[in-house]
């Protein structure tokens, strides 16, 4: 969904505040940012390299081992502007991962900063949902209208995990069933029920679960048992498998199927067109509810549609969201059919969910996305990146697949000449990109996929700049 109010975006290399960050090249050219905070370092401290090492040591002593960090020498990001961030040792990077897709508009966005400041200036950061919250109601109205769900209602949380926990609570309560279908290679969060529906061993930290889950085939065709089939045959095989799975592994009265339209943590795996639409038809026959996890795919990032599921022509019973909505402020939520949202018999509350500060940031962010038509931008710039990558590195022996939609692009790295995953190559590529001034993400079932998901405001010039770094990097990793 788009509005007709469009404002110009910065051109090629950004404008105003963004220009002070220069290009992606870092190191020697990095200057002390004026007006920044105490974290800014001067050249001497920077060259000593001590700030990150010292913080890493403290981090390791007090934080859990399972909280993993990127890079051999992890970095602290201390400031940002536009699509660039600067680390604690003064290096500036072009950011193609956006804080795991959260900084959807980029950094230091005046509209978001002003909205947060205006709320803070009132002296009230929080009141709780015991009182009316104007920003929350405004935001819920917008999201309900954008959802396409008739009479939709919205509940706000602080994270994607909580959003999915809520969706699972609602659908299982509504259907009076604890059975859930999830997709293989999925990721839905870190809490009890959400880990239960996460189909990725690397993140499946417990087999205990409040829901009884069965896993259907996903859109991750590259390693599927049905790999090699064309789109139509793949969809038919998966649908046949879904029916068989419902008939043989469930008691029939399944509460819901939960699916990411493009699997994020799973390496930006894109299903063939028609898969989720065909699944929705089967679910409707059985009365099973459809939950679309839009935590990564929402707000136009996939380019084709405002919600990732939109490409399938499906209006789900519920959608969950988080990540980019607050442009960095913690917010998530569920938008659902009214009877589903209202089905809980007792009371339920999230103390911080939908708080004034987060909803102020989210309203400003969502308005920005719509007013600047960032969905179209994601489609256009995403195409440049995807086609550029396919053309320039698609044939390298270490590249198994380049896939994606809009500004969600995955590059699956393999041992040359095989489909065997090569996580070490992905780690090297991540490291080399950083050395060359570009931050990208990593993921996939075996940690062997690069994930490219820049802010939706990425300019053409920045896309070309990042693409060049990626192409050079992958060529050098391929050369060994
Ligand atoms: N769903 C999806 C699709 C996600 O990618 C994530 C986070 N990576 C979550 C849910 C969980 O969100 P959070 O980390 O905010 O709890």
Give a brief rundown of this model.
The protein has two domains: 114-371, Type I PLP-dependent aspartate aminotransferase-like (Major domain) (Aspartate Aminotransferase, domain 2), CATH 3.40.640; 373-480, Aspartate Aminotransferase, domain 1. Helix content is 36%, strand content 14%.
Architecture overview:
The protein is of the alpha/beta class and 480 residues long. It has two domains: 114-371, Aspartate Aminotransferase, domain 2; 373-480, Aspartate Aminotransferase, domain 1, CATH 3.90.1150. The protein contains 14 helices and 15 strands. It has helices at residues 43-48, 50-62, 98-101, 110-121, 134-147, 160-175, 192-196, 231-249, 275-286, 338-341, 356-371, 374-393, 423-435, 460-479; strands spanning 77-81, 84-87, 92-95, 153-157, 179-183, 212-216, 256-259, 289-293, 318-321, 332-336, 399-405, 408-413, 438-439, 441-443, 449-452. Helix 5 crosses helix 11, helix 8 (231-249) runs parallel beside helix 9 (275-286) and helix 13 (423-435) crosses helix 14. The model is unreliable at 1-8 and 10-47 (pLDDT under 50). 4'-deoxy-4'-aminopyridoxal-5'-phosphate (PMP) is lined by residues 100, 159-161, 164, 187-190, 260, 264-265, 293, 295-296, 322, 332.
């Amino acid at each position: 969904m788009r509005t007709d109010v469009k404002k110009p975006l910065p051109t090629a290399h950004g404008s105003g505040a963004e220009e002070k960050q220069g290009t992606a090249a870092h190191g020697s050219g990095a200057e002390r940012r004026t007006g920044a905070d105490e974290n800014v370092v001067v050249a001497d401290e920077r060259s000593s390299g001590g700030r990150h090492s010292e913080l890493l040591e403290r981090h390791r002593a007090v934080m859990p081992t399972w909280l993993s960090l990127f890079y051999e020498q992890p970095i602290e990001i201390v400031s940002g502007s536009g699509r660039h961030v600067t680390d604690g040792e003064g290096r500036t990077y072009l950011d193609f991962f956006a804080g795991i897709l959260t900084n959807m508009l980029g950094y230091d966005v005046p509209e978001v900063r002003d909205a947060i400041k205006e709320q803070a200036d009132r002296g009230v950061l929080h009141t709780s949902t015991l009182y009316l919250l104007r920003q929350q109601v405004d935001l819920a109205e917008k999201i309900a209208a954008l959802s396409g769900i008739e009479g939709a209602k919205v509940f706000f949380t602080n994270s994607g995990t909580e959003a999915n926990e809520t969706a699972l609570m609602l659908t299982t309560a509504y259907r009076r069933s604890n059975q859930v279908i999830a997709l293989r290679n999925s990721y839905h969060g870190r809490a009890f029920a959400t880990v239960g529906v996460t189909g990725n061993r690397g993140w499946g930290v417990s087999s205990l679960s409040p829901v009884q889950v069965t896993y259907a085939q996903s859109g991750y065709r590259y390693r599927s048992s049905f790999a090699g089939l064309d789109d139509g045959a793949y969809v038919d095989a998966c649908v046949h498998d879904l029916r068989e799975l419902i008939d043989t592994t469930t008691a029939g009265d399944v509460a819901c199927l939960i699916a990411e339209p493009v699997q994020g943590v799973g390496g930006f795996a894109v299903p063939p067109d028609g898969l989720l639409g065909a699944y929705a038809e089967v679910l409707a026959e059985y009365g099973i509810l459809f939950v679309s996890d839009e935590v990564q795919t929402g707000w136009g990032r996939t380019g084709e549609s405002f919600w990732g599921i939109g490409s399938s022509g499906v209006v789900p019973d519920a959608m969950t969201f988080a990540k980019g909505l607050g442009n960095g402020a913690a917010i998530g939520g569920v938008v659902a059919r009214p009877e589903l949202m209202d089905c809980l018999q007792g009371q339920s509350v999230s103390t911080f969910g939908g708080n004034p500060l987060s909803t102020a940031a989210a309203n400003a962010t969502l308005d920005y996305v719509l007013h600047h038509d960032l969905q179209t931008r994601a489609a256009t710039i995403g195409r440049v990146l995807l086609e550029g990558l396919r053309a320039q590195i698609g044939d390298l022996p270490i590249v198994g697949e380049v896939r994606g939609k809009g500004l969600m692009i995955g590059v699956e790295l393999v041992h040359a000449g095989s489909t065997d995953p090569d996580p070490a190559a992905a780690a090297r590529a991540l490291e080399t990109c950083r050395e060359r001034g570009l931050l990208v993400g990593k993921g996939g079932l075996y940690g062997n996929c690069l994930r490219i998901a820049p802010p939706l405001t990425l300019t053409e010039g920045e896309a070309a700049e990042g693409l060049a770094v990626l192409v050079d990097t992958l060529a050098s990793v391929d050369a060994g």
